[in-house]
3-isopropylmalate dehydrogenase
Amino acid sequence: MKQYKIAILAGDGIGPEITAEAVKVLKVIEERNDVSFELLPASFGACAYFESGSAFPHQTKAICDEADAILKGPIGLNHEDSKRIPIDEQPERGALLPLRRRYNTYANFRPVSLPKSLAHFSPLKPEVIGEGIDLIIVRELVGGLYFGEKEMGVNDAGLRYVRETLEYDEAQIYQIMQQAFKLADKRRKLLHNIHKSNVLKSSVLWNEVMEEVAKEYPDVQVVNMLVDAAATALCLKPTQFDVMVMENMFGDILSDQGGGILGSLGLMPSACIGPDKAYYEPSHGSAPDIAGKNIANPYSMIGSVAMMLENSFDMAAEAKNVWAAMQGVFADGYSTADLSKPGSGVTMISTVEFGDKVVEKLRQMPRV
Ligand code: IPM
Ligand code: MG
């Protein structure tokens, strides 16, 4: 029997609720396969800060170091509550970026996927969605502005100022391009390279390295697109995209737009892959306004489990079953509050009910 250790960082806000549903799914995977998961819960985010004074405590680091993979819920507080935590310990800066840096999880995969049958979830017209949206954003996750040096102060003129730096070297660009081209090569052999080289020199180097890597993948067609134009194209014709590669901040912004064109950020799972360790998390925040109400959508968290099964545990067939189970629940006419628009004919169910229905579907699927 295969045995894996999974660090479970439930996080803040809706994190614990949606993590509980993902854990239910992991238990069913154990029942159905010759595999056992040792779950190692650890505190991470604002909750950890209030418990121990650190958003990413030593003990959590030790658990993550030991784990074969990490399942992480969303973290963070609302704008006002964040101010109760010193800037450098606020969970985004104090926990999430350090987690990414610690395991050098430079490759972030964010699928934006909506089968034609679920077109009614999207704010886009059915004719725009056509046969369905199925693209994946490959976001560089440990470089650029988010990781550059930062400085705040008062300048010689007595004005408050801030300086943040955007830095990439060719090795960082090379490794994310390799991931993107490999993925494009396995899929539709189409790669959209998203950049802003008409303004940013970082994009000039980005594109140079991209062209070098492209020579290794002669079958992959590259389309270069400015990031602002890509934002429009995602709304007007999302089906033109298959794999899109971009630097850290562009990926942060466009992946949230991905959630928007699907109809909910709750449909956005992700995988963050480094050379030795990977962690899996929803792309969205902790939605403190709806926390504790049993109305959050656990799809992104359960989808992150599916990505973990495929990438970390070599269980691609079972991962497909998890996706199919979730689609099955939608196909039966159910969905959580975020996707249950009035008049859509959808029956609204709770976070727990969604998890239960996914589990029920999964149990009915032939074992692999
Ligand atoms: C994301 C999030 C994070 C990011 C925040 C919470 C720091 O928005 O994963 O997209 O900006 O990377
Ligand atoms: Mg984001």
Remarks:
- The CA atoms of residues 268 and 352 lie 18 Å apart.
- The pocket of magnesium ion (ligand 2) is lined by residues 252, 256, 283 (CB under 6 Å).
